[in-house]
Amino acid sequence: MKFIKAFNNNVALVKDDSELEWIIMGTGVGFQKSKGDLIPEEDIRRKFVAEQSTRKPIMQVLNEIDPKVLDVSVEIIKNAESSLKVTFTNSIYLTLADHLSFAIKRSNERIDYAEASRWEVKNLYPKEYEAAKEAIRQVFDKLDVLLPKSEETFLTYHFVNGQQENKTKMEETLKMTELINRVIELVQYHFQIKLDEDSLNYTRFVTHLRYFLIRQMKQDALEQEEVDKTLLELVKTKYEKAYQAVEKIAKLLETKYGWTLSSNERLYLTLHVWRVTKR
């Protein structure tokens, strides 16, 4: 790889023997280099093609980002990969750096976005959420900028969507979050209460919803024998109001997505609803 230009000490534009241009990342790949210098392959941690159709926006993004922000973004990704034990796709390097650049600008201008899904995201993706909080701490430590609370959600989405082995795409993530919000709103309206989002039962409820929705999206039925009808009738009688809420949830899912709740799911969901709403 022959050096063309540096974006900072650790990010550079190079070309290979066939004159194809690449964006490369690695410790020191852009430090004190001159045009035409050879970059050893072992020094390159990540690389992706700066294709003609996309080179202009890629170059614009890199040129518009403060080198310090780009360095912090790379460091955040390395730490997140280590803590989550995953490998992110190459695209996260640009998307995260670009996002952080604008997030820092908004923070400096005291602009924040309202977001109502933080608690759901926190419970859906607890490890990625913790990585997002750590990223905010890194930005503060390195750049002396305190990002707003909403960034916990936005950065979590970046970490979820940037995982190579994660089969839940952003559209599915947003769909799941919306559905969980709808179910929680339905339960709260049915019982005329506000659920305690810090409680263990709330966490269990959201976790159960998450795995149920993932199975539905993948059309992967719960492989268990149907629950005994006597037991289901007992639960319906003992936890009547919770079961009524589950019936409303079942109707919502069937009407909106054509999903059917099995007797097993109705039983488990009733118990979760009862636990999360009891005082």
Automatic annotation (TrEMBL):
Which top-level group of life is the source organism from? Bacteria
Pfam families named among the record's database cross-references: CAT_RBD, PRD
Task: List the PROSITE patterns.
Answer: PRD_2
Arranged from A to Z, the UniProt key words for this protein are: Repeat
Residues annotated as domain PRD: 64-169, 171-279
Q: Which GO terms describe its biological process?
A: regulation of DNA-templated transcription
**GO terms assigned for molecular function:** RNA binding
Under which name does UniProt file this protein?
Answer: Transcription antiterminator
Give the classification, highest ranks: Bacteria, Bacillati, Bacillota, Bacilli, Bacillales
